[in-house]
Specification:
Blueprint (H helix, E strand, L loop, with lengths): L1 H10 L6 H13 L3 E2 H6 L8 H13 L3 E5 L5 E5 L13 E4 L5 E3 L22 E4 L2 H8 L6
Parallel strand pairs: 4-6
Antiparallel strand pairs: 1-3, 2-3, 4-5
Helix pairs in contact: 1-2, 2-4
The structure holds zinc ion (ZN) (2 copies).
Length: 147
């Protein structure tokens, strides 16, 4: 596990710092997009200062090891790029539950094709579908919520 992480960092041309190893390892273990706040609350990352965490996330995004997607709540979420797949990091749609704020990667679906203005240079893309996940939908449909 740690060896795979070290290899991923080295092949992206990065040094294996403890911060990079723990952030990449945590995202890898979680396997779903999470916010900066989720990460800093995680026991494996807890204790890291915010600036180091932001810088580490930025470095990993720039290196193509993780991708980030902004939800309609404004929060960026970070997710590890599957190492066994080719293709552009984050090149898939995401689903965001507005109830529990969990985001899922929909890796098996293609992004819609969009024609950009002539001469434009595309730097990234994201496509977020939002609503309620099955658990939140069931919770709100069940036993008459008060209000
Ligand atoms: Zn939910
Ligand atoms: Zn994703």
């Amino acid at each position: 596990m740690i060896d795979a992480l070290r290899m991923a960092l080295r092949s992206a041309g990065l040094r294996c710092t403890p911060a990079r190893l723990s952030v990449l390892g945590t995202l890898d273990a979680l396997g779903q997009p999470v916010t900066h706040a989720d990460l800093s609350a995680h026991p494996d990352v807890a204790g890291m200062d915010d600036i180091t965490l932001y810088r580490t996330l930025g470095t990993l995004v720039d290196a193509g090891l993780i991708h980030r997607v902004q939800g309609i709540d404004g929060a960026w979420r970070y997710c590890v790029q599957p190492r066994d797949r080719a293709g552009c990091p984050g090149n898939h749609p995401h689903f965001l539950c507005t109830g529990c704020r969990r985001m899922e990667c929909l890796v098996d679906q293609a992004m819609p094709r969009v024609r950009v203005p002539e001469g434009a240079e595309v730097r990234g893309r994201h496509f977020v579908v939002y609503g309620r996940c099955a658990a939140c939908a069931a919770a709100s449909a069940g036993s008459g919520a008060p209000g």
